[in-house]
Write a structure and sequence with these properties.
With 399 residues, this protein is an alpha+beta fold. The strands form four sheets. It has a five-stranded mixed β-sheet with strand order 1-2-10-7-3. Helix 7 crosses helix 10, helix 8 crosses helix 10 and helix 10 runs parallel beside helix 14. It is globular and about 65 Å long.
Length: 399
């Protein structure tokens, strides 16, 4: 007999818990209900899944890939494809083999090489925003700064950048409500990389990710990656690299546009921006949950999880766990203990976390330095996603 410590109200609210789309508008209420009486529960969404809400339990699950596997995918619902995305949808032992190929792209030395380009791109985009009375800080800053930086790193041709945003939007933001549209975009992206990789295979190598992948060798036999493996790598890097950091930058600006005292504090004390970035990642994380598959019967907090069940690690709830964070529902720039889950944990921790952090901090630094005080022009725009973020620029008289 399994324990059930849910409060009646929490159980009713969470029976159809969702962590995508419009459900994010008021998801903080769900998280408070979880922590009040349902740290482990079950939702009927997406075919049904068990959810874990406590930071400690999520970190523990991340450390047990032999119990909580990523196969068939850690994405729920799918990212516009049923093909496993390398390396995040791969379990040990091959996961480490695939992940190792990408490590050279995210070393501290590589980040230092990329930093001047990130900063210059942020400055140029911020100057364009600053010249307007009302600007879309998402379309004109948060999204292009990431698209430009990450596409150059990967080797995605500049002529193709204009079509990337719609593909990303359809795959990530339509997958829950309109899966056919997400799969159509996914097929278009796979076809795009099929052509690009074929074109690049016999071309001179560049200092970019595609060249690294084309030259990579894996396994004891030191074989090249297959064409399908190459497409899988590129597909993942495309959808993950172009969305998550843009979301983080946009959500940070969303908060600052609605919180004048916070904006003023960071302008007066720019040295607090790295700490602010960590709080934005904790409170407004681009990834609110990731899925696993339970491989054998197990028990978490007295609740039995059967082998074969899908399990969602609710990062967003863990990031607001009152047992892990003081004043968990408040963004505080003076927070010193901040072991959040914005990048996950364990062997599947986000490989690009240091690049994402660097992009986020530099983007905030340059936007606040270049753009005068800004406020929300449309208070109804939500905190989540990469949709429009209308801000009004307030210049001093005579400026």
């Amino acid at each position: 007999m399994q324990a059930d410590d849910r409060s009646p109200d929490a159980g009713t609210r969470l029976d159809a818990f969702d962590f995508h789309g419009s459900a994010l508008d008021d998801i903080w209420t769900d998280y408070r209900a979880m922590h009040a009486g349902c740290p482990v529960g079950h939702s009927s969404k997406y075919g049904g899944f068990t959810f874990l809400a406590k930071l400690e339990d999520i970190f523990s699950a991340e450390q047990q890939p032999d119990v909580f596997a990523v196969s068939p995918s850690m994405l729920l619902p799918a990212f516009g494809t049923d093909v496993p995305m390398i390396p995040i949808d791969i379990d040990p032992p091959m996961h480490a083999v695939y992940r190792k190929i990408l490590l050279p792209l995210f070393t501290p030395r590589m980040l230092d090489v990329l930093t001047p380009g990130i900063r210059q791109t942020a400055i140029e985009l911020a100057e364009a925003v600053a010249a307007q009375d009302v600007a879309d800080a998402s379309k004109e800053f948060a999204r292009p700064v990431v698209t430009i930086v990450f596409s150059r790193l990967c080797g995605f041709p500049e002529k193709d950048w204009p079509k990337f945003d719609q593909w990303v939007d359809d795959i990530i933001y339509e997958r829950a409500e309109d899966p056919e549209r997400a799969y159509a975009a996914g097929n278009a992206v796979r076809a795009y990389f099929d052509d690009l990789l074929t074109e690049r295979r016999d071309a001179p190598r560049e200092q970019d990710l595609i060249s690294v992948l084309l030259d990579a060798r894996i396994g004891e036999e030191a074989r090249h990656l297959t064409h399908d493996e190459l497409i899988s790598y590129c597909y993942l890097l495309f959808v993950a690299g172009l969305d998550t950091t843009s979301w983080a930058i946009r959500s940070g600006l969303w908060h600052l546009a609605r919180t004048p005292e916070a904006q003023a504090e960071l302008r007066a004390k720019p040295e607090l921006i790295p700490a602010a970035a960590e709080e934005f990642l904790r409170m407004l994380a681009p990834v609110q949950g990731m899925a696993r598959t339970c491989l054998r019967d197990t028990v978490v907090r007295g609740r039995e999880i059967k082998a074969g069940e899908r399990v969602v690690l609710v990062f967003g709830a863990g990031n607001r766990d009152p047992d892990a964070f003081d004043d968990p529902d408040t963004i505080r720039f003076d927070r010193t203990k901040n072991r959040h889950l914005a990048f996950g944990g364990g062997i599947h921790r986000c490989l690009g976390s240091n690049l994402g952090r660097r992009e986020l901090v530099i983007a905030l630094e340059e936007f606040l330095r270049v753009v005068p005080t800004f406020t929300a022009e449309d208070p109804g725009q939500s905190w989540h996603g990469v949709g429009p973020l209308s801000v009004r620029i307030h210049r001093e008289r005579g400026g």
